[in-house]
Amino acid sequence: MPKLEWDKIGERLYETGVDRGVLFVYDKSEKEYKTGVPWNGLIAVSENPTGAEPNPQYADNIKYLNLMSAEEFEASIEAFMYPPEFAECDGSASPVDGLEVSQQNRSLFGFAYRTLMGSDAEGTDYGYKLHIIYGALATPTDKSYTTQSDSPEALTFNWDITTTPVPVTRFKPTACVIIESVDAEVDGLAELEDILYGVDADVENGIVASDSRLPMPDEILTIMATTQG
To answer: Using an 8 Å Cβ cutoff, are 23 and 125 in contact?
Structure first.
């Protein structure tokens, strides 16, 4: 095995940016996520896992073992604006057009977004990651309205979210799945993005239009494994 080398050209990697946000509101009556809608104006998404802390156990006057607590997936979203469909996830109801009633029950939602992967040689053309979040529930956050001035700034909205994991065959339940374009098989990644973002009809090529929808982890696993042969 050759001697280790650090910071070789093309191996100085980093992550940056956030875009292509998609919101999937959960339909309680149908027990499934609704058609996805674009989330414009994303500023930041912070993933903040909690838990997974050691709980030492003692026996025979020594530290016998460490038991790990369950890990919880939490996150925060910051944006200039949100889709109208997110209002029910933020505790608002609209009985008639133009009227919102706050302090209502908050709907569960799914959320997908993309972050860019970069390298010293290719910049952000190197690749990207798709982040898919399930069972999210937004908590109330502050909204601060200020006067306009000679240095205007747009109001930003912030939400903290908690999640409920969903089943994954052969693995523990999860609330977040991440797909890396650099390692994923091209056909599988394309199929997954068609599901997440929808497809326009193309009569000449026999392509039928399809709506954006949220694939569950088992479906993603099947797509990525099948396309790898």
So the answer is: no
Considering only CA atoms, which of 139, 135, 138, 219 is closest in space to residue 179?
A: 219
The top-level CATH class assigned to 13-56+67-183 is mainly beta
Structure tokens at 1: 């095995």
Length of the chain, in residues: 229
Chain centre to alpha carbon of residue 4: 35
List, for residues 27-86, the tens digit of each pLDDT value.
999 999 999 999 999 999 999 988 888 899 999 989 999 998 888 999 999 999 999 999
Cα(227)–Cα(82) distance, rounded to whole angstroms?
Answer: 35
Whether the Cβ atoms of residue 89 and residue 77 lie closer than 8 Å to each other: no
Cα 34 to Cα 24: distance, rounded to the nearest angstrom: 6
- Give SS3 for 219: helix
| Cβ atoms within 10 Å of 45's Cβ, excluding its own | 20
Place of tokens 């990651």: 129
Distance between CA atoms of residues 44 and 24, nearest Å? 18
